[in-house]
Structures are given as structure tokens and as C-alpha cells.
């Protein structure tokens, strides 16, 4: 969110200072790694309606940078018989006039032989879903912020020790600097509660564990052969997602959500119990991956608000301070659009994008 805001503000010719506590491209937050899923397929109509402008925002960024950041893979969503997730997704796709196909698990298995879903599963396929090149997208926006506005300052490895809101302007305090801002955007993810303790935000950082499986037949799981997928099970702990093999890393698979985490005390290890949980899911749904070697693991952070909603709003006591993120583990696909929203709010004081559902209140 910070990189996207910097890009959109620099695009307007604003002077931007981007302050990052770690090195650029670090793996301690929520936006590193090769790729993230992007899709119109949302069960919540408010988020679904924002996907067409989110896609446009990414296309505009690709044009500005003259580099591709989106790979079309197709995406499939499925749930057990009796669930309503796919029905709600399909209803929203129909309302948005997004091409899709609704089918049974048996029909999907015929169309995509890598899968072996129960025959009565409910399935919807969206051909225009795909992957965003996550680390590349963040780096591209930072590079454009520099190129579009020569006054842009990027301060990496510069931890913010506190934010001082007692004066006429907000002040960011680091070990060596006091940065007085006309407007301040706090896009601190899992650290937002520590930087703005007065807000007592109801957010919880959690630990997201990602596995990359090396299939015996890699070609069957490459782009064009294997789509991104989301499985919405019967309980909150039974949501899984995955993406095709990209750059030889393997097939990315994870359970959505995880245990509470301390962002200042990262644990890179992924235990056998979690690995077995994901393997059990794959054996039941993508059998060729169930016993595949795990070649790579990643850990990142979610920062979860009630109802897995976003928080994008002004500070209740300061119109010159904006809060951007947390995004509850599904915000990357919206980040370029939210960067434009933040630029709108910071410069114009308003935005045409509906954000009432993301307000702190």
C-alpha cells in the first residue's frame, strides 16, 4: 500500500518521502514473493464490484512502467455440496458481466484432469483470473515514484520509532530524523497498532504459511495447464488456495489464515502438522501433488481486522493522517487501486471509490 501510494502521488507531481523499516523487497511483511492471485471471483459483492477498477489500475501501472505484471492463468473456486460460496461468487460474476462457467465437481474433473474433486462439489471457473508478480510490482511502483517525481525520497532500513501527532503537523520520528509532513499515510501492516496505539485498532497479525510442491510432471502444473484455485470448505479453517508453477518454484499451496504472530519475532519454520494438513487437502483434491516434494517454503503476515475487512480511513482526530491497511490477507490485488484512493484523499480530500465499509468506525 505504501509503494502504491508513493507511485500515485509521484504521478501527480507531489513530493513524497517513503519510509521503510527494513530493506526494500524484504520478506517480513505481506507483499513479498513471486506472485499473488487476482480474480473477480469474490463472494462479497462490495469487493467484487471493486475488481474491474482494480484490474484497470494494474493495466495503467503496466503501461506507465512498460512492463507486464499480470499473468492470465484462469481461476477456479469450489466448495462442498451444501455450501453457498460458489453460488455467491457466480452471482457476482454474472452481475459484473465477467465470463465464467458454473459446473459440478465431476464436470470440472473432466475439464481439468489434475483435479479430483468430489462429484457433487459446486465449481465456478473464471478464465480471466491470474497472478500478479508481487515483488516485481512493489519494486516497479517504487522505481516509478523515483522517476516520475525527482523530489521523491526513499528511506530504507529506517525504522519509525514513533509518530508525533501533538503539533500542527504530523511528525515521523526515526533514529536520526524528525520528518514533518503536510499529510501522512501510515501503511504499516502488522505494525500499525504500535505506531497508532491511541486508535486501539481491533487487528491481529497472523502467520501465513506457504508451501511450494514440485510435481513429478511439472508441465501438468504450469501456466496454461493448471489454474489458480480457491477451495472454501465447511469451516473457517478449511479454506485453501493455490497457484500454478511459476519460474520453476513449484505449485504454491497454502491454507488461508494461521496462528497469531508477533511481527518482531518471525518464525520461518513450518512444522510437520501444517505440512500434513496441506498434503491431506491435496490428496483429496489434487492427488498428483499429495506426495510431491516440498521444494520451498515461505512465511508472511496477515493483519486481520474483524470480518477480514480492510481499514482505509482518516485518523479520527487528524484529517492530515491517513491509515492504509491492514487488509486481512486479501489486499494485494487491490493495492494499486488503493494507492490511487490514498492519493485522492491526500491531495483532493475525497475519492470516487466507495470506501465507507473500510472506515475505522
Kindly list the characteristics that best describe this protein:
361 residues; eight-stranded mixed beta sheet; 9 helices; alpha+beta; three-stranded antiparallel beta sheet
Could you characterize the architecture of this molecule?
The protein is an alpha+beta fold. Helix content is 28%, strand content 26%. The protein has nine helices and 19 strands. It has helices spanning 2-11, 45-65, 85-96, 105-111, 134-148, 192-195, 272-285, 287-290, 335-348; strands at 17-19, 35-38, 70-72, 75-79, 101-104, 122-126, 130-133, 153-155, 160-164, 171-174, 178-180, 184-186, 204-214, 228-232, 239-243, 251-255, 293-304, 312-315, 318-324. Strand 14 (228-232) and strand 15 (239-243) form a beta hairpin. Helix 1 (2-11) packs parallel to helix 5 (134-148), helix 2 (45-65) packs across helix 3 (85-96) and helix 2 packs across helix 9. It is globular, with a radius of gyration of 21 Å. The two termini are 20 Å apart. 42% of the residues are buried.
